[in-house]
UniProtKB/TrEMBL annotation:
Gene3D superfamilies: 2.20.28.10
Domain Rubredoxin-like: 1-44
Gene Ontology BP, a term: alkane catabolic process
Domain of life the protein comes from: Archaea
Name this protein carries in UniProt: Rubredoxin
Pfam families per the UniProt record, alphabetical: Rubredoxin (PF00301)
Gene name of the record: rub_2
Length: 45
């Protein structure tokens, strides 16, 4: 499981907490905080 950060607002998507891998989210999923798409997220090392 991984964590992903929104490069626009800093929202953290946590695969484990959410129960769904980031890669498995729908293509039209958007950040719940600022509304940008998945392409604006980077995996946290």
């Amino acid at each position: 499981m991984a964590k992903w950060i929104c490069t626009v607002c800093g929202y953290i998507y946590d695969d484990e907490e959410a129960g769904t891998a980031f890669e498995d989210l729908a293509d039209d999923w958007v950040c719940p905080t600022c509304g940008v798409g998945k392409e604006a997220f980077e995996e946290v090392a």
